[in-house]
Amino acid sequence: MEKVAPCIIIAASALHIITAHQFHFIYDHKNWTDAKSYCREKFTDLATVNNMEDVAILETLANLTKMVYTDYSYQAWIGLFDDENSWRWSISNTSFYKDGEMEFRSWATNQPNEYGTFEYCVRTDAYGKWNDLDCKMSFKVICSDVEGQNVTFVYIDIHLNWTAAQDYCREHHTDLASVRNKMENDRISTLIPVGQFAWIGLSRSTWKWVDGRKPSLNYWSKNQPNGAAENCGLGYFGSGYSGRWEDWPCAHKIAFVCFSDSRHVVKLKLVRSSALNLNETTVQEDILKQLMQKLVDQEGKENFKLSWKKQSDGNVFYTEKRKDEI
Predict the structure, then answer these.
(1) 142 forms bridges with which residues in the sheet?
(2) Residues in domain C-type lectin (predicted)?
């Protein structure tokens, strides 16, 4: 008598293993934007500096004789930048805004000027004019109570920094005020006494790498970043600087540092449990964490990244079926 055994379902996928990136000094003189384009075309991207090991490698690779300029020698662009166009409202639900309302602005003259290290938060005054300022400063607060598309603004007569103001509004009201149009801006301005100022819910990102990550390492030179319209980061490799970061105007033309990834693809097969959907994001993330930990235990350090390769249908895993005759 011939029997057919149950199907053995095997989930197969491809796993990308990206090892620690390699740095490449390019001694052509380019502005930050052109340097980024060059790195993305020839390598992976402008360099990210994640730890002191990366710092030491850059110091070793830097050829100072090839970084001599008319002014301020021994500098090279890295992939650090201050995204001046990243203004976002505290209320992030897009359904709260009609077309164009998330982009409404009422800046005072010569604002935002983005001068200094922490001018990432916005206050308004009794005339409805906005300034970008250090988020750690203390001002009165405009909160909002939102029901659908309707909003009521509330003037909070206590001094708080921007983050504390956001926490207060979210605890006692809906959120810090979003200002969607001129009419709402006028309503808010009537709440603020002349000579007083108040936080609203507009802020922007701080310095970040070209891949969107915030720096995990603080390696700025003393009193840096410090400049108006100095939105791009470089490494200063002169004597005593050791590759420390400085902010400079992005049009500055100097050498730059690219990086490239060493990428390996490994085919992975897993016997799938009938109760487990391997194409669920949370399941895939859990598998990656377990694989990562095993690799870290073997290598002794975390010098690589893992990511899944998607199939043509958008899924990571696909099934292989095998029938065994008994």
Answers:
(1) 155
(2) 18-144, 161-259
Q: For residue 241, tell me if it sits in a domain.
A: yes
CB 59 within 8 A of CB 242: yes
Give Cβ neighbours of residue 94 (< 8 Å, ≥ 6 apart). Answer: 102
Q: Which residue reads 């936080």 in tokens?
A: 199
Neighbours of 207 (CB within 10 A): 19
> Whole domain around residue 187: which residue ranges?
88-203
CA atoms within 13 A on the CB side of 187: 16
**Residue 15 and residue 306 in contact, taking contact as beta carbons nearer than 8 Å:** yes
Phi-psi region for residue 242, left (φ > 0), alpha (ψ -120 to 50) or beta? left
How many Å apart are CA 150 and CA 286, to the nearest integer?
41
> Which SS3 state, helix, strand or coil, does residue 135 take?
coil
Can you read off the two tokens belonging to residue 87?
């203004």
Mean pLDDT for all residues in the chain: 84
Residue 13 lies in a domain: no
Q: In 3D, which of 163, 82, 153 has the Cα closest to residue 121?
A: 163
Residue 279 forms part of a structural domain: no
77 with 44, same domain: the answer is yes
Return the structure tokens found at 29: 């003189």
User: pLDDT of 24-60, one tens digit each?
Assistant: 999 999 999 999 999 999 999 999 999 999 999 999 9
CATH code, domain carrying 74: 3.10.100.10
User: In the chain, what's the furthest Cα-to-Cα distance?
Assistant: 95
288 lies in a domain?
Answer: no
Tokens of 248: 């400079």
Q: How many domains does the chain have?
A: 2
Give Cβ neighbours of residue 52 (< 8 Å, ≥ 6 apart): 217
